[in-house]
């Protein structure tokens, strides 16, 4: 089990909870912090103090005072009115991550919610009850209001949930499991929806997949090097140390390891003096992607452990401050940066695919065809890769440069970070398919060159890959091969 403290959750922890369904529990000190924070809210209500979101309306209605007798209605009205998400729902993985991240933020003790609220989030998580949350509708400032409202609706028994592979009304599942829906008290509705957990959850899922693909792209590229008799000298450590980027040095080291005992690679001058950039510059290009991923991971882990609602409560309620921690700008920038970096893995991969299938650029059969002319072979696979790469270029346009005012211009600058995170995830899916195409083509190329001459590491990948995609002995519906290979790449190989 994973202990939540609101301080040290990592992306790897999120992966364990989301993908391996590891259960979580709340640290004792964090539970005490939640209790103290809620007591401060109770005192504010009893004293009739005017505090945003506790005894006032929201957004442009922040100057409207709400009587103590109406504070519970205020919170449920907030959830219902803000549940305006549209479009296809986030995956269950993202929904699960949102539950985890919202709980982790609330237990920091600045939000004023009862323990029951956090316990309900944890209960949903551990029993794998996942709110149905539409993907579209968040501006990424004032928090992910619409997506998180749909999450909160499930907690009060009014929304929909995924449960055991099917969509149900939340109230039905809670009744079936003997769970009482939450009845929101002062500030609790606002605390549940004022945060960046939709963009951060989708961002973490995209990051984990991107990291996975970044490693796999190198091993696939190593096999392409063999299929094209690439020049190993370009990965010599001295070149990369001379430039000084650690990520570039590390990528070159991995490439040397993958190709250590290959008889298919060449030395400079044996076949040609230099390779094209898509082969020669693998450490420089892939290494730069790794630099970006490290930046993204750092920002995600800060945000995952941040208090992002408003207002925040300090000093046992003596200091309650309205601020802007819900603004998603840090994650918006990180997601836009990751989009560009991951798209580049597909850009350079597609250029390697072109070198594998173009007879003017290699000494292989045209389009890797078993019978050129009669059989088209991998010709249209390259078309597919080119299409995916082009689509990525439009998705990589930064979402964070846009802003549209909302709430009667009270909220006059927003991040669009959730759009950026959604697009980052879409790009990773496209990159996955481009890499699958490169792997299919690389396997065919090394087969032609002689698999007995392959390096130990790339031969392992070849043997596993051939269990998924058989050799191209005649034309067939390659769409199925690409999808099967892409699905396999989403899992791990050694």
From TrEMBL:
UniProt keywords, alphabetically: Cytoplasm, Histidine metabolism, Lyase
Gene Ontology biological process terms in this record: L-histidine catabolic process to glutamate and formamide; L-histidine catabolic process to glutamate and formate
Coiled coil: none
Catalysed reactions, as listed in the record: L-histidine = trans-urocanate + NH4(+)
Main location: cytoplasm
GO MF annotation terms: histidine ammonia-lyase activity
GO cellular component, one term: cytoplasm
Domain of life: Bacteria
Enzyme Commission designation: 4.3.1.3
Pfam families: Lyase_aromatic
Keyword hit for Transmembrane helix: no
Covalent crosslink: 5-imidazolinone (Ala-Gly): 141-143
Annotated positions of the 2,3-didehydroalanine (Ser) modification: 142
Pathway this chain belongs to: Amino-acid degradation; L-histidine degradation into L-glutamate; N-formimidoyl-L-glutamate from L-histidine: step 1/3
Modification(s) after translation: Contains an active site 4-methylidene-imidazol-5-one (MIO), which is formed autocatalytically by cyclization and dehydration of residues Ala-Ser-Gly.
Family in the record: Belongs to the PAL/histidase family.
HAMAP family (alphabetical): His_ammonia_lyase
Protein name (record): Histidine ammonia-lyase
């Amino acid at each position: 089990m994973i202990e939540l403290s609101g301080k040290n959750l990592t992306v790897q922890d999120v992966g364990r909870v989301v993908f391996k369904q590891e259960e979580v529990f709340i640290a004792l000190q964090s539970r005490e912090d939640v209790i103290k924070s809620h007591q401060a809210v109770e005192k504010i209500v009893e004293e009739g103090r005017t505090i945003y979101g506790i005894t006032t309306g929201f957004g442009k209605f922040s100057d409207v005072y709400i009587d103590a007798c109406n504070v519970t209605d205020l919170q449920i009205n907030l959830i219902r009115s803000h549940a305006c998400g549209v479009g296809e729902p986030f995956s269950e993985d993202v929904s699960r991550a949102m539950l985890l991240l919202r709980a982790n933020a609330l237990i920091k003790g600045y939000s004023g919610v009862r323990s029951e609220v956090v316990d309900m989030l944890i209960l949903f998580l551990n029993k794998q009850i996942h709110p149905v949350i539409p993907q579209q509708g968040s501006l990424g400032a004032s928090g992910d209001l619409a997506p998180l409202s749909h999450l909160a609706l499930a907690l009060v028994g009014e929304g929909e949930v995924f449960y055991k592979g099917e969509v149900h009304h939340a109230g039905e599942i809670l009744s079936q499991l003997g769970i009482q829906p939450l009845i929101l008290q002062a500030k609790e509705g606002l605390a549940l929806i004022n945060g960046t957990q939709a963009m951060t959850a989708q961002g973490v899922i995209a990051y984990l997949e991107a990291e996975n693909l970044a490693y796999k792209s190198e091993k696939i590229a190593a096999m392409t090097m063999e299929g094209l008799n690439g020049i190993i000298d370009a990965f010599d450590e001295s070149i990369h140390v001379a430039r000084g980027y650690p990520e570039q040095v590390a990528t070159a080291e991995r490439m040397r390891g993958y190709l250590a005992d290959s008889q298919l690679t060449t030395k400079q001058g044996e076949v040609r003096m230099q390779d094209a950039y898509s082969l020669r510059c693998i450490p420089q290009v892939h290494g730069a992607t790794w630099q970006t991923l490290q930046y993204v991971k750092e920002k995600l882990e800060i945000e995952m452990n941040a208090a992002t609602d408003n207002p925040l409560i300090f000093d046992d309620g003596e200091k309650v401050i309205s601020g802007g921690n819900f603004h998603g700008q840090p994650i918006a920038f990180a997601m836009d940066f990751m989009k560009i970096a991951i798209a580049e893995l597909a850009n350079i991969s597609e250029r390697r695919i072109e070198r594998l299938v173009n007879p003017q650029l290699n000494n292989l059969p045209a389009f890797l065809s078993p019978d050129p002319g009669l059989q088209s072979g991998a010709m249209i696979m390259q078309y597919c890769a080119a299409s995916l790469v082009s689509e990525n270029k439009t998705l990589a346009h930064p979402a964070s440069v846009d802003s549209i005012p909302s709430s009667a211009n009270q909220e006059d600058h927003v991040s669009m970070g959730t759009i950026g995170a959604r697009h980052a995830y879409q790009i990773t899916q496209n990159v996955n398919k481009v890499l699958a195409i490169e792997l299919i083509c690389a396997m065919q190329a090394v087969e032609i060159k002689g698999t007995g001459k392959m390096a130990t590491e790339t031969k392992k990948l070849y043997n596993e890959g051939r269990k998924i995609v058989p050799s191209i002995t005649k034309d067939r519906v390659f769409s199925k091969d690409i999808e099967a290979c892409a699905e396999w790449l989403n899992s791990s190989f050694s």
